[in-house]
Amino acid sequence: MTESNNKWEYAPSLESTSHIQLKERYDLFIDGKWVKPSDNRYFSSINPATEEKIAEIAWASDADVDLAVKAARKAYTEVWSVMKPSERAKYIFRIARLMQEKARELAVIETLDGGKPIRESRDIDIPLACNHFFYYAGWADKLQDAFPQRNIQSLGVAGQIIPWNFPLLMAAWKIAPALAAGNTVVLKPAESTSLTALKLAEIIEASGLPAGVVNIVTGHGDTGAAIVNHPDIDKIAFTGSTSVGKLIQKAVAGTAKKVSLELGGKSANIVLEDAPIDQAVEGIVNGIFFNQGHVCCAGSRLYVQESIADEVVRKLKQRMESLYLGNPLDKNTDIGAINSKEQLQTIEKYVEIGKKEGADMYQVTCELPAKGFYCRPTIFTNVAQSSVIAQEEIFGPVLTVQTFRTIDEVIQKANNSPYGLAAGVWTDKGSRIFNLTSKLRAGVVWANTYNKFDPASPFGGYKESGFGREGGLHGLEAYLK
Ligand code: NAP
Ligand code: MG
Fold first, then answer.
1. Which tens digits make up the pLDDT trace of 373-416?
2. 237 near 260, Cβ under 8 Å?
3. What are the boundaries of each domain within the chain?
4. How many angstroms separate the CA atoms of 246 and 7, rounded?
5. 15, 110, 262, 464: which one is catalytic?
6. Atom 48 of ligand 1, nearest CA residue
């Protein structure tokens, strides 16, 4: 440990990139083939940690989306919906196995393309993505057991649109239950993080999944809109911002399309005075700084009971100073790159607003790399409940800290949000956990932990955080009639 800071100095430990295979240019994966975009348009995907271009990606037009939907419809009618469920399960298992075999490559590509620390993509994103395929493969031939005494049927063609914060994991959340329930898929990844979805397309190709069952169309927002507006899609599953979610809901109103929306959040992490403080501080750090705060359910509002507030904030600052910010490919790195320049600007705009609103800002004092998009972990204390930084989703490593005296007060403050995705509660007492979990209006409430996910457990929001659940049997039901 050096005198000047409380950080251990580690030698760099870079994950190797020699084993990954990337093409210079990716086309669209439609009907089991790689198809050039009809407008011959491509865009670049860059590494946000270095701003270097990684590959060119096809930009799908309305005509390309139409081709993908036609392929998905044909595959649905002629192959996938009439296949024995136990046969469908074998394909899904095979995809999971192939993903596992390629886990290391997928992790490195996820980190290069999206900026998240390799430790997270290696230990969390990719294993969880594989586990979603394993989990839903197991249900594929047990649907009737899962929903006894109900006459269940697949929906048809699912259009799926996903964001950039957990690219492969979100693709797995969407594709695995859809296939297990007997549907076919047209999926669009986010424009800044298409690469692991395209690698998944290669895996799907290698698995021998019948052509057209899964189609991956890359592009920008207009490509997503083409999916939403396509008349021959039976179900839209969207994860992303509340603003785009609202557009989608308007677009499908009055149509027969089923919809599930997983939207934004501003989740409360609540520390009571009897909580194990060091453990809670770890949980706060994990809640907001994990994946640079690019987590829909990030614990971005901290509520600490007044009697322990000084100690918690002091320990939190100390812990923040020991975080490693830098090259996401370094295995020591805790905080990687912000996903895009636009997102960095959004976060910086909110930091300025917080300062103007009169809150006290504390930022980690580390140096930022000369190139790439980076943001220092930041906390604001003395924050008013009505302030913009406590109300709006920032989607970056920025935490607001408020205090409270009574349990009723913190329930009211925590629920005073347009969102309701997740919450955390830190206390030594089980009765307090039960009291709070029953009163917090949030889809997930973690007790003495934060950001824990499992394929078997449903996830989703209240209020403007969306509707519908993903994961578990709930996630399967969303793809069934
Ligand atoms: P976003 O701008 O809403 O984009 C999400 C996806 O929708 C992207 O693939 C995007 O394409 C596409 N899209 C953009 N405009 C569209 C339109 N008019 N019609 C159809 N599709 C359109 O969100 P983001 O900035 O990528 O992601 C961050 C947001 O997602 C945050 O608010 C976060 O809270 C939320 N999120 C929620 C969950 C959850 O489970 N609740 C999980 C993760 C993220 P382009 O990328 O090409 O623009
Ligand atoms: Mg990228």
1. 999 999 999 999 999 999 999 999 999 999 999 999 999 999 99
2. yes
3. 25-263+465-477, 268-454
4. 44
5. 262
6. 221
For residue 467, what pLDDT band results from cuts at 50, 70 and 90?
confident
Q: Model pTM?
A: 0.95
Per-residue DSSP letter, 379:
E
Distance 264 CA to ligand 1 centre (A): 9
pLDDT of residue 465: 82
Average pLDDT over residues 327-341: 97
Say if residues 398 and 383 touch (Cβ distance below 8 Å).
no
pLDDT, residue 4, reads 47
Instruction: Determine the pLDDT at residue 6.
Output: 59
Q: Which CATH number fits domain 268-454: 2.40.50.140, 3.40.50.1980, 3.40.309.10, 3.40.50.2300?
A: 3.40.309.10
pLDDT band at 47 (very low <50, low <70, confident <90, very high): very high
Distance separating alpha carbons of residues 7 and 203, to the nearest angstrom: 41
* Residue 244 CA to ligand 1 centre (angstroms): 7
Res 466: pLDDT: 79
- The rounded Å distance from CA 162 to ligand 2 centre is 14
Which residues is 426 bridged to in the sheet?
A: 271
- Cβ neighbors of 302 (< 8 A, separation 6 or more) are 268, 269, 271, 284, 288, 379, 399, 400, 401, 402
Catalytic residue from among 130, 296, 297, 366: 296
Q: Which atom of ligand 1 is nearest to the CA of 228?
A: 20
CATH class for the region spanning 25-263+465-477: alpha beta
pLDDT digits (tens, 9 = 90+) for 241-257: 989 999 999 999 999 99
Q: Is the pLDDT of residue 436 over 70?
A: yes
- Ligand 1: lining residues by beta carbon, under 6 Å: 161-165, 188, 190-191, 220-221, 224-225, 228, 239-241, 244, 247-248, 262-265, 296, 393, 395, 421, 461, 465-466
Q: How many angstroms does the Cα of residue 300 sit away from the middle of ligand 1?
A: 19
What are the DSSP calls for 30-80, one per residue?
ETTEEE--TT--EEEEEETTTTEEEEEEE---HHHHHHHHHHHHHHIIIII
Token pair belonging to 119: 């430790």
Output DSSP code: residue 440.
S
Residue 366 designated active-site: no
Statement: residue 5 has pLDDT above 60:
no
3-class state of residue 262 by DSSP? strand
